[in-house]
Design goal:
Length: 334
């Protein structure tokens, strides 16, 4: 069962937001919420959430100042059904329910995040260890299989791109679904300007203190096949560790929620750890150390992560698998 919230009134009017089985999406005025509605001054920072258990939908008020309403009734936690009207701040959402193909629904449910954050040994190990780049790439090389390029010598499919970029784009868009870039502004501050000028859908994911002011330090941006961002990300950013890529049938908001949920974890001793998931070097360490259960939880609705090796000469495609994470490699050296 898939829930779809159609925004009828408010700053996001016209948008449709999907909530997959086993997931919960929060709404609010600030980026602390999975879906930020900054133009709604009557919303709280994190106002309400919609939870999809796979069998039942729930609407949760998150301690908002002005309340959350389902069909005109103020609620703290309430079951919800198709055609229910949810009101929060000056925004109104109409709830739709769609029954997915059973095989697809089971697959999505199997990928839901059910593990407590503090139990992730792989995360704690990756966050605690220093990043020996040579050793990281060697460890990855020892457990990968090779991706066979598809018509690598026919670059006309991607006009304006050379053979390495064509090979990368073929792999990124080889499966149905959406492609996303998770970009680290701390690696290149122009990323914010590139993203905001691109016309693509994006969400800020994390914030950091830089030169005495708080900035958006990472962005998740949706990349359609014809995105103008390909030019700057692949021709200028590749090889400079600007970020990581992923693919999924899930919408932007769902992927943002998944990545945010692992941006900060607690160590076994209770110390908060901020995880630089937009750093390809860190993510390589993390993915290589995950158990199968941890892999399923980290990936959630994400089908693949795509990472660069130091120097950008190799593309890694990482997929959750029985043994933890399956790793494939594409040699981009032409």
């Amino acid at each position: 069962m898939r829930a779809i919230l159609e925004v009828l009134e408010g700053p996001l009017a016209g948008r449709r937001i999907e909530v997959y089985p086993g997931h919960s999406i929060s709404f609010g005025r600030t980026v602390k919420a999975d879906i930020a509605v900054p133009g709604d001054g009557y919303m709280s920072g994190r106002h309400f959430a919609v939870e999809n258990t796979g069998d039942i939908l729930f609407v949760h008020d998150l301690g908002s100042s002005n309340g959350t309403f389902v069909n005109g009734n103020r609620v703290d936690r309430s079951p919800a059904a198709a055609q229910d009207m949810i009101a929060a701040g000056s925004s109104k959402f109409l709830l739709h329910v769609e029954q997915d193909d059973p095989a697809v629904a089971a697959d999505m449910l199997s990928r839901t995040n059910t593990m407590p954050r503090t139990s992730f040994g792989g995360i704690q190990a990756a966050a605690a260890q220093s990043l020996d780049r040579t050793q990281i790439d060697q460890n990855f090389a020892n457990q990968t299989r090779v991706i066979t390029p598809v018509d690598a010598n026919v670059p006309q499919r991607w006009p304006g791109f050379g053979q390495p970029q064509t090979m990368m784009l073929d792999v990124l868009y080889s499966a149905p679904g959406n492609v996303y870039a998770y970009l680290n502004v701390l690696r290149e501050q122009l990323i914010q300007a590139y993203v905001e000028a691109s016309g693509e859908r994006f969400l800020p994911l994390t914030q950091s203190l830089l030169a005495g002011r708080v900035i958006n330090s990472s962005y998740l941006v949706e990349l359609p096949r014809n995105s103008r961002l390909h030019n700057v990300l692949l021709k200028e950013g590749w090889g400079r560790m600007w970020g990581v890529y992923c693919s999924s049938p899930a919408p932007l908001e769902q992927i943002a929620g998944q990545l945010r949920s692992f941006a900060t974890v607690q160590s076994g001793s209770g110390v908060p750890l901020n995880l630089p998931l937009a750093d390809p070097q860190f993510l390589r360490v993390l993915l290589a150390s995950l158990s199968p259960t941890e892999g399923i939880a980290i990936f959630g609705p994400i089908r693949h992560f795509f990472l660069e090796a130091e120097g950008g000469e190799t593309l890694y495609r990482c997929t959750p698998a029985v043994q933890g994470v399956a790793i494939e490699t594409l040699n981009l050296k032409a």
